[in-house]
Amino acid sequence: MTINQPFTPVIGQQQAIKLLTQAVRQNRIAPAYIFVGPEGVGRSLTARCFVELLFSRQTQNAGALQNRLLHGNHPDLLWIQPTYKHQGQQLTPKEAAEKGLKRKGLPEIRLEQIRKITEFLSRPPLEAPRHIVVLDQAQTMAEAAANALLKTLEEPGQATLILIAPMLESVLPTLVSRCQRIPFYRLDTQSLAFVLTQTGHEEILQHPAVLSIAAGSPGRAIASYEQLQSIPSELLQNLTKAPSSYRNALELAKKIDQDLDTEAQLWLVDYLQQSYWQKWHQPSIISQLEQTRKYLLCYAQPRLVWECMLLSLCQNGT
């Protein structure tokens, strides 16, 4: 296996691949990395490829290794994702969706998960020369969790940690200072179309609003399209025009609160910004929706937030 081979699935991130392959060639693997860039442009995929490259140096069976990494059952890899808390359990977004839970609030990386990292690193690696820990969406760490992780980064032992985040400013500066930065960038239009076609999502190319939301991120385009399919078509149709009356505005706000979880409501803000701008070109409406996003992120009462937004739209007579 050549050093570049594991990175074959990664499109449009030549600088990141170059930095990581150089580290392997020179045998200068950093104790910690932070993969920084927009969501859905290949940060997690690159992390998996990097893990495969590091672990493949100890095995001759590349296929078996890929299968183990894909199913998350390699004893020296720990992949941490943000979780929801439900009845004392920690559930990833995928697990929460499979259980049909209506998710209020946003998932986060919790102190208990950082303690799990400490326990994981307390024993020597079983098969590989080092442990690897990946913290996906590291920006969701609560303050207590981030402070606990700092102690691990100061003395990682036989381990490499990879933090994945959208920007350096979204992670505690003391954590960032202990990581080597690996930059990721949005894909150009041609690369975006190539990835969507290669992954069987070419139908997304027919939805300009979804592509605008994606802004060069294949992962975000796919997630956005899936979100579009999950929202009742009648509700979406009613929202893409101004409410016909105050009563209609209040009814729509109630429907949004009842039918959509927090993540879907935040996506809806993005979608309506694109839709309303194409229709009316009024910056004030876009600003109002941005304020709606801020209130939702502050855990304000969603129904009240949407009532204010839609009543304002009605008053403007758009």
Describe what is shown at a glance:
This protein has helices at 14-25, 43-56, 62-70, 93-98, 111-121, 143-154, 173-176, 189-198, 208-214, 218-230, 233-239, 246-259, 262-280, 283-297, 302-316, and strands at 32-36, 77-80, 84-86, 89-91, 131-135, 159-165, 180-183. The protein is α/β, with parallel strands linked by helices.
Topology:
Elements lengths: L13 H12 L6 E5 L6 H14 L5 H9 L6 E4 L3 E3 L2 E3 L1 H6 L12 H11 L9 E5 L7 H12 L4 E7 L7 H4 L3 E4 L5 H10 L9 H7 L3 H13 L2 H7 L6 H14 L2 H19 L2 H15 L4 H15 L2
Parallel strand pairs: 1-6, 1-7, 2-5, 5-6
Antiparallel strand pairs: 3-4
Helix pairs in contact: 1-2, 2-3, 5-6, 9-10, 9-13, 12-15, 13-14, 14-15
Radius of gyration: 22 Å
**CATH secondary-structure class of the largest domain:** Alpha Beta
- Per DSSP E runs of 2 or more residues, the count of β-strands stands at 7
- What percentage of residues falls in helices of 4 or more residues? 40-55%
CATH topology of the largest domain: Rossmann fold
Tally of domains: 2
Strand residue percentage? 5-15%
Number of helices: 15
